[in-house]
Amino acid sequence: MAHAIEVAGLTKRFGPVLAVDDLSFTADEGRVVGFLGPNGAGKTTTLRMLLGLVNPTSGRAVVQGTRYVELGDPVHTVGSVLDGGMFHPGRSGRNHLRALAKAAGISDARVDELLQLVALSDAANRRAGGYSLGMRQRLGLAAALLGDPKVLVLDEPANGLDPQGIRWLRDFLRTLANEGRAVLVSSHVLAEVAQTADDVVVINKGRSVAQAPLTEIMARSGGGMKVAGPDVRRLGDILHAAGANVTGDAAEILVKDRSGEQIGRVIAEHQLVISELAPTGSSLEEIYLELTESTGGPS
């Protein structure tokens, strides 16, 4: 089965500047993929190539196996928010969405449904130019969802959101993934990525430095998977016999080189009783700074 998003050997040069360098990764339906990297790492350039706004120097970026510019029905295939979304400041939020819907042959009923979904119904008739940055982000999300696409590409959607708004966005993205959509989201809010993403792709200087399920990255970077429960000693013996790095005692073990999914499969296979299985050790922020060699002040 094809991946919802596939980036393979993607490279982009702007004159002498190598912005993206042989980058490859995938995103699947039902998953939130956090796309991380310092400013200037090539994240936005990658997303713009995926959406057909920038031509790659080499490599390919496809949605459901097809380049964006060749999609027969892009509005109903992929939705995106780049730069907070574009809108006419003199139009109301509702009229902005209605104009986009009319161009795509989508009914006004869908507009009202989405305004409610992104909590903008009360502000729908206000001029979008007077919206806060967080409201503009939610308006952009509504526009991205007009065609009920199975793939979403979001560039820094948490910008401008207060803590309540960030929590709303977290729940919103998880809901979209649970509905079977693939959600690729770039973000600098690492604490939220740690609570939201299923998978993480980290790039630096245009190149991939890490990509794996979040639990695996957390487990392999200075920490591990903590396991506790009645059968934990037996689990430890099984994992150790299979070559895993296991430490601990009869009450709790730490497995340093297996992901939560891998350990879970062993638990299920042997029908073991386990009460806790959780990553421990380094935070995502610490891992990110280590992977990107980020030091000093803000970029």
From TrEMBL:
The reply to whether Cell wall biogenesis/degradation figures as a keyword in the UniProt entry is no
Sorted alphabetically, which InterPro entries does this protein's record hold?
A: AAA+_ATPase (IPR003593), ABC_transporter-like_ATP-bd (IPR003439), ABC_transporter-like_CS (IPR017871), P-loop_NTPase (IPR027417)
Residue spans crossing the bilayer: none
**UniProt entry tagged with the keyword Transport:** yes
**Keywords of this protein's UniProt record, alphabetized?**
ATP-binding, Nucleotide-binding, Transport
As given in the record, the signal peptide range reads none
Tree of life domain: Bacteria
Give residue ranges for domain ABC transporter: 5-230
Q: Name one Pfam family in it.
A: ABC_tran
Under Gene Ontology molecular function, one entry of this record is:
ATP binding
Which family is this sequence assigned to? Belongs to the ABC transporter superfamily.
The entry's protein name is: ATP-binding cassette domain-containing protein
- Could you tell me which species this protein originates from? Solirubrobacter ginsenosidimutans
